[in-house]
Amino acid sequence: MAGSGLFRRLRIVGGALLLAVALLLAGLGPGAVPVAAAGENLTFRGSVDRAGVSWRVHKFTVSGPGTIDVVLDWDNTAADLNVGLRNPAGTFVKWASTKNKPERLTFPDATAGDWAIGVKAVSGAASYTATVTTPGGDSASPSGAVVQPQWVRQIGASGRAQMYPSGVDVARPSRGATGSLAGQAGWVFIADTGNDRIAAYTADGKLLWQSGIRGRGDGQFSEPRDIAYLGGRLYVADTGNNRVQVMNAATGGFVAKWPTFFGAIMGVTPGKDRTGAWKVIVADGKNSRISIHDPADTTRVYVGSFGKGDGQLNEVRDGAFDSRGNLYTADFRNHRVAVFDATADGGWAWRGSFGSLGGDPGQFRGPYGIEVDDADGVYV
User: Fold this and answer.
1) Whether the predicted pLDDT of 192 surpasses 80
2) What is the per-residue pLDDT across 287-297, written as a single tens digit (0 to 9) for each?
3) Could you write out the DSSP letters of every residue in 18-71?
4) pLDDT at 55 over 80
5) Distance between CA 104 and CA 169 in Å, rounded?
6) CA-CA distance, 237 to 230, in Å (whole number)?
7) Measuring CA to CA, which residue among 366, 287, 291 is closest to residue 331?
8) pLDDT, tens digit, 9 for 90 and up, residues 281-317
């Protein structure tokens, strides 16, 4: 699905299909941020696995100059974990990678601003506790904590269905809703599958435009399954027509259609690859593979093949990049999340998978969507 940092769900109420949107910790709605008093330590907890989610980031704010001390400890003595310190410019200024347990680092030249620690699994899997001591009072936004979604509003009417959506995305500055496009920030875009159209709404639910009818022509759709906003353009998974169409986010007007022919597009998501270049990730369920395109579809790379082994996918439904350009996929029929690492030569290397069939924590039954947030937290 296209909307990173956005929790989405579909509800049936009185026979009507409603789109319920809860905006969390993405600059689009309220979110709880714990605050530490002066002199207190900040404690972050989480888990990492070299074969699954191998990297987590925890953010905190330093109010004045001084020394930052970090202690990282974990439960599995067979695992090897590292911890790094990231400055407000986004640069990791120090790492603790001694193979000792616990790992410790001290950085004496901290300045005021937004800092972060990164916890990495070099080998094995472990649950960890990271304690950060900072100069002065600090606030923290722990990526390892469980945050309960907050209901904001619904879009669509009770009692009579106004839409039959499968995909939704929100325009935001991190996706190019800046400058002349700043007025689009917060707009909600819907792939209205049942009505063969797309639509745009303001954040408070006011309809801006609807576009499309059933057909194969330019700007027409057949069961569009997903939609993604990037820099004033909408990338629409026109599933029944085996294509991606590009539309104007301001008006819903047709811009272009990609030349690539797809089997059955289930998800479309923008993200930055390991070089920082914007790409559009397409999950082709029929062909059991991910394809990665530049926004004009002049280049494309395929990842995965049909099967249940290493590096294989079965009716994949969605994909997303983490902050380093690694690829996480919702491997639907294999009931798992399959992970591929971006390599220096532009290729993809199988890292591993996590999850199995079932209803217990850590298990899946046909995972349909996946997102990775700015702190590399994975949502399935």
Assistant:
1) yes
2) 999 999 999 99
3) EEEEEE-SSSSS-----EEPTTPPEEEEEEEETTS--EEEEEEEE-SSEEEEEE
4) yes
5) 41
6) 14
7) 366
8) 999 999 999 999 999 999 999 999 999 999 999 999 9
Provide the residue count of the chain.
380
- Find where tokens 């026109």 sit: 238
Residue written as tokens 């704010």? 61
* Helix-then-strand count for the chain, H and E: 0, 33
Contact 28, 150 (CB under 8 A): no
Phi, psi (deg, nearest 5) at residue 40: -85, 150
pLDDT score at 177:
86
User: DSSP class of residue 157?
Assistant: -
193: which DSSP letter?
A: G
How far from each other are the two terminal CA atoms of the chain, in whole angstroms? 10
Least confident of 153-157, 208-212, 337-341: 153-157
* DSSP string computed for 280-297: EEEEETTTTEEEEE-TTS
* Cβ proximity of 302 and 353 under 8 Å: no
pTM > 0.90: no
* Joined tokens for residue 160: 């009579």
CA angle 232, 238, 239 (to 5 degrees): 145
Q: What is the reported pLDDT for 46? A: 87
The candidate with the shortest Cα–Cα distance to 34, out of 146, 141, 169, is 141
